[in-house]
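Propose amino acids for all 177 sites.
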């Protein structure tokens, strides 16, 4: 296994966690949790839904340790699980016809009004992108490489490059930047 800055340590931790060592899993999880949560927030647009998706991600990662092959880092593997969990939460929300009130801003005036407007403009521009373009650009903006995004999304790297390129141009056009 050749992943992460300390590949041998990660391989040892994965092996121990797969054998049931919860402390080893907590160590691995600590390195992936924050960015997995950020990805869930970006994909769901809601902190409550992101928390649900993150919990599903942690459970799925623990249960799936035996299937972790080490072809990517543990964190990238967790991002793939988090992506699927977040998309699952979104599908559930759509089936139930739920309304997300987390993203609704209270009317305000003052120095933050422009920042709120800008944030809402960015969210609207992201929402207008095709789903695969939005996911790819969000993963890439989170700091993943094209190859890592391809691994998470189970897509060819060249497709990822095209999706990110198109998403960036669409966002630039919509936001006037």
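Proposal:
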């Amino acid at each position: 296994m050749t992943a992460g800055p300390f590949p041998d340590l990660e391989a040892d931790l994965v092996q121990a966690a797969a054998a049931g060592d919860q402390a080893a899993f907590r160590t691995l999880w600590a390195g992936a949790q924050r960015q997995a949560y950020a990805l869930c927030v970006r994909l769901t647009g809601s902190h409550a839904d992101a928390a649900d998706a993150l919990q599903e991600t942690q459970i799925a990662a623990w249960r799936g340790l035996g299937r972790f092959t080490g072809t990517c880092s543990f964190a990238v593997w967790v991002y793939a699980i988090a992506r699927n969990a977040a998309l699952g939460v979104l599908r559930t929300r759509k089936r139930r016809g739920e309304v997300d009130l987390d993203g609704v801003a209270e009317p305000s005036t003052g120095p933050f009004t422009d920042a709120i407007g800008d944030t809402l403009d960015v969210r609207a521009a992201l929402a207008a992108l095709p789903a695969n373009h939005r996911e790819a650009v969000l993963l890439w903006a989170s700091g993943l490489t094209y190859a890592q995004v391809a691994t998470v999304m189970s897509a060819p790297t060249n497709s990822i490059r095209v999706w990110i390129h198109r998403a960036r141009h669409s966002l630039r056009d919509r936001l006037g930047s």
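The chain has two domains: 1-97, 112-176. Confidence is low (pLDDT under 50) at residues 98-117.
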